[in-house]
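Sample log: ABC transporter, ATP-binding protein.
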Amino acid sequence: MGTITDTFNQESPDAKIVVRDINRVFHLKRTKTEGAREFIALKDINLEVQKGEFLVLVGPSGCGKSTLLDILAGLAQPTSGAVYIDGKQVSGPALDRGIVLQGYALFPWRTVRQNVEFGLEIKKVAKVERKAISDHFISLVGLDGFADRYPHELSGGMKQRVAIARALAYDPDVLLMDEPFAAVDAQTRESLQDELLRIWEETKKTIVFVTHSIEEAAFLGDRVAVLTANPGTLREIVKIDLPRPRHNSDIRSSAEFGWVRHKIWELLQNHQPEIRVPADSRPVADIISPSAAL
Ligand SMILES: Nc1ncnc2c1ncn2[C@@H]1O[C@H](COP(=O)(O)OP(=O)(O)OP(=O)(O)O)[C@@H](O)[C@H]1O
């Protein structure tokens, strides 16, 4: 019997997700000024995500981050190439993958608890067990006392916590997150990032996280995959060697963090990264303008 490695050239035996030669082409309709044409949204994407790894995807608007995440989720099919999770080709959505999207996507007619229990109902978990599980995850995301509230009675940050609890509750191995914190204010965003890292350390999920924010990518990721647009290609994967645990630390203000952020920023500027020693001795974090966060 052939091994997984034989089948699709998996490089690492610990890979949870293997993305092989993914291309995604959209067929654009004819307009008044242009004939029908093809648009290459993703070109030759190859990637492996290790078990328990936190991988972040960054790139300019339109580079295909959401398209790639949808393919990982099984919500969209690649034009060519394939995704394998635990050696099995992804052919559609499944409960081994939890998805958290921007804009919460909660069911407005369900309470917090009913939202969190949704996947468990699909799995036909018994009511008593469902309650124990939802209690655990509602508490894990810091929403004790809010189980009976409806989404419209919650703040944006709280809704996002419910979405995370809902995705975690049915115990997927992989969590796919598409700009989950984009709609909340800066302070809430930092506390949700802290919360997510704490939960990740506790649950050991494999996470693929899409963001526009260099700061967020550097803070969260074990590695950051930088994509470029037109066509969407994988430019480079940056390994983030910042120490963990990072949550509830002041790592964001360290010089090392500034260097990491700068490196990702340079890659996004579409020229080769180079480590420049600043003329003065201030930490790079103090020199880079805030606009480095896209
Ligand atoms: N159904 C579609 N038909 C045609 N083109 C599409 C379709 N869906 C996406 N695209 C194009 O594919 C490219 C990638 O889109 P995608 O949403 O994946 O980018 P993104 O990196 O997530 O962007 P953003 O950061 O702005 O959310 C874009 O240029 C988009 O216009």
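Observation: The beta strands are 15-28, 37-50, 54-58, 80-85, 88-89, 97-101, 174-178, 206-210, 223-228, 233-239.
Observation: Residues 1-7, 271-294 have pLDDT under 50 and may be disordered.
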